[in-house]
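Message: A physicist's question: would you kindly supply an amino acid chain plus fold tokens?
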Amino acid sequence: MREHPKQLDNGPLSPLESAILSAAQYVYVSDDLRPRTIEAAKELASDRKIKRGASSSLLSSLLFIVFIGIPLSLAFERNARTYLSSTQAIQKQTVELSSQPGVGSNWAFYEVVTRLRTEQASRFEKLKAAAGR
């Protein structure tokens, strides 16, 4: 067995240091200490990897919601209001046209939609011509 020094490079040993050095003769490392330590380190690394993956998933979900989800839902809401107002306009025109004698509600609806499509086609042609210049 190795003999421990009575003093260190920086002077004599304190009583605490002497007690610690004396205990070294009685403390032995078990045979499975290294495998247990490696296993514990692997588990800790695995836990950290799982936490890192969960936090990155959470962050990417949050960023998706903030930068994609909210603007998209606002756009859908704005389009829904536009669609609702145009639908209400079509219904109003259909009711007005069907109140005329000899025009049924189905025929009035057909006429209103045909006018709307014709108007949309002319606007599209104007935009197409303006873009072609």
Notes: The first strand starts at residue 7 and ends at 8. The chain has three helices and two strands.
